[in-house]
């Protein structure tokens, strides 16, 4: 019973669903009909609105074109306004406000570029011509301002540099100014000048070059010309003294200061080449190089003058005691000083000689100077009346030369042959002194027909086996005493300054004199002692003579002429 009822209920629901679907279809058909009607109406409306839309688009495009035109006009007007502002600044010139002036030029260049790209503008050609003309005037004014500033810079820096030199003590002197100076004053000024050269080149000129480089860095401007102009007077002021010294009258004492000056110029030349680089500074480089060569030339000529002056020295100075002459010590000291400048002299000789000649040039010059000295000493030795003093003088002076050379670098340059040759000359003069000074007195101790050392017995008649009478022996003793006393008095006033040479010469005399005297005393003293007043004749023992020989060559004063 339940099942039929359920089936019935299901049928009713199905019938209700079918009815609902039918109503929904009817509603759908009605909506489609309505929407179709709307589509027709919209199409009609769109057709009616199309002309209005076309007019609206045209209006909008026109508005956009007007807006673009107004914006372009604003840009052009802004360029005109900027041009007027730039023109006003340019007409005022760069001296009031250089930075604004430069900004105005940049703006004008920008305007020219703008109008060059916008030539469709009706007046662009006129605007461009005006702007370009104004730009040319602006650049011309700027160049004039730059030249004025450059002039001011040169004058200010040149003045500052010259003031610094004057504060240092640099003077612009002529040859005549130098010629009038006392040697001590000139020597001091040369020493100062060498100091000033080093300071000026290494500090002042180098610093000025750095300033110039920094100011004109990253520019096309020829800064070397500016640097050359502002340093020109200072360079001339500094070098004028060196030129004056190099051109002044030559003298031997100037050689070493000339070498000092040449040395500083050689030392500074690389820095001068660096500081004064470029075509603009060629005159400065040439001037300094010219001074270097002139100093070298003057120094070389002074060498020749010195050699000639040594050989021809006619000074009236006479060393009465036969010691070392002032000329000898002067020349030897001069030569010693030369060896302090060996490297400088080699450079100097290279200015005029080939490389191979340079090595031997100093030796040649030194030998010539020594030979000139020796020639002069030979002449001076002839001034002595006593030949023995002549040889003593030569012995002393040549010994001084040899000893000085042996103790200095000159030995390596002159060589052992020179030393040995001149040592032999010393010995030859010593031998000549002994021969001339002592031959006569030694003859009093020599008995003809037999030496003083023979052992012949005395005869009872007052004679001896040699046949010499007592009277003759007395005369010989008297002659010996007189000669020896005279030699002692005179030669104790003479001088042999070198202790070793002095002792050697005394010993050489003693080795000849004392044995002969001892032999003579031994042989003939008994003959005298047997007579009256033997002490009148035999005044000295050999020991007395030896002691008195020890007083020779000491340069003592006896209150009478030494010559």
Automatic annotation (TrEMBL):
InterPro entries: Cullin_repeat-like_dom_sf, Exo70, Exo70_C
Record-level GO BP terms: exocytosis; protein transport
Organism of this sequence: Phoenix dactylifera (Date palm)
Biological role: Component of the exocyst complex.
Keywords recorded for this protein, A-Z: Exocytosis, Protein transport, Transport
UniProt gene name: LOC103714281
Name of this chain's protein: Exocyst subunit Exo70 family protein
Gene Ontology terms for molecular function: phosphatidylinositol-4,5-bisphosphate binding
Keyword DNA-binding part of the UniProt annotation: no
Segments forming domain Exocyst complex subunit Exo70 C-terminal: 192-550
Protein family according to the UniProt entry: Belongs to the EXO70 family.
GO CC field: exocyst
PANTHER family: EXOCYST COMPLEX COMPONENT 7, EXOCYST COMPLEX PROTEIN EXO70
Keyword Chaperone set for record: no
């Amino acid at each position: 019973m339940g099942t039929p009822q359920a089936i019935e209920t299901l049928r009713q629901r199905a019938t209700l669903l079918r009815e609902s679907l039918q109503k929904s279809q009817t509603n759908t058909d009605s909506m489609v009909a309505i929407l179709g009607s709307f589509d027709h109406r919209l199409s009609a409306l769109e057709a009616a609105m199309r002309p209005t839309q076309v007019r609206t688009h045209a209006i909008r495009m026109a508005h956009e074109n007007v807006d673009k035109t107004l914006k372009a006009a604003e840009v052009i007007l802004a360029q005109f306004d900027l041009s007027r502002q730039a023109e006003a600044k340019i007409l005022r010139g760069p001296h009031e406000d250089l930075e604004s002036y430069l900004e105005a030029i940049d703006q004008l260049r920008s305007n020219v570029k703008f109008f060059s790209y916008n030539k469709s503008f009706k007046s662009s050609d006129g605007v461009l011509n005006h702007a370009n003309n104004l730009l040319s005037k602006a650049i011309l004014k700027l160049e004039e301002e730059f030249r004025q500033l450059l002039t001011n810079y040169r004058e200010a820096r040149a003045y500052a540099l010259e003031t610094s030199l004057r504060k240092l003590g640099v003077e612009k002197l002529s040859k005549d100014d130098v010629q009038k100076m006392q040697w001590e004053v000139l020597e001091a000024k040369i020493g100062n000048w060498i100091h000033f050269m080093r300071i000026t080149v290494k500090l002042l000129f180098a610093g000025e070059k750095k300033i110039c480089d920094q100011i004109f860095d990253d520019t096309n401007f020829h800064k070397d010309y500016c640097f050359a102009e502002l340093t020109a007077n200072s360079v001339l002021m500094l070098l004028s003294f060196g030129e004056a010294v190099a051109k002044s009258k030559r003298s031997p004492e100037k050689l070493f200061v000339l070498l000092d000056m040449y040395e500083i110029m050689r030392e500074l030349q690389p820095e001068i080449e660096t500081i004064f680089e470029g075509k603009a500074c060629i005159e400065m480089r040439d001037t300094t190089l010219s001074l270097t060569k002139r100093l070298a030339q003057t120094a070389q000529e002074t060498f020749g003058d010195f050699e000639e002056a040594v050989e021809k020295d006619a000074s009236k100075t006479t060393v009465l005691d036969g010691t070392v002459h002032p000329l000898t010590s002067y020349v030897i000291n001069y030569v010693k000083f030369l060896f302090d400048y060996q490297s400088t002299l080699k450079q100097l000789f290279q200015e005029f000689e080939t490389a191979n000649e340079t090595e031997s040039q100093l030796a040649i010059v030194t030998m010539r100077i020594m030979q000139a000295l020796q020639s002069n000493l030979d002449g001076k030795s002839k001034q002595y009346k006593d030949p023995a003093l002549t040889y003593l003088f030569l012995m002393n002076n040549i010994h001084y030369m040899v000893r000085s050379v042996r103790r200095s670098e000159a030995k390596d340059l002159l060589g052992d042959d020179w030393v040995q040759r001149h040592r032999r000359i010393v010995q030859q003069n010593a031998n000549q002194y002994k021969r001339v000074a002592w031959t006569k007195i030694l003859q009093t101790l020599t008995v003809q027909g037999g030496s003083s050392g023979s052992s012949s017995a005395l005869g009872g008649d007052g004679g001896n086996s040699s046949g010499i009478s007592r009277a003759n022996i007395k005369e010989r003793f008297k002659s010996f005493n007189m000669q020896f006393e005279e030699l002692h008095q005179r030669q104790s006033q003479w001088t042999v300054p070198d202790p070793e040479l002095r002792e050697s010469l005394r010993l050489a005399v003693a080795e000849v004199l004392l044995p002969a005297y001892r032999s003579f005393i031994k042989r003939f003293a008994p003959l005298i002692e047997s007579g009256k007043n033997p002490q009148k004749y035999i005044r000295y023992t050999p020991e007395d003579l030896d002691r008195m020989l020890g007083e020779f060559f000491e340069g003592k004063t006896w209150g009478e002429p030494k010559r």
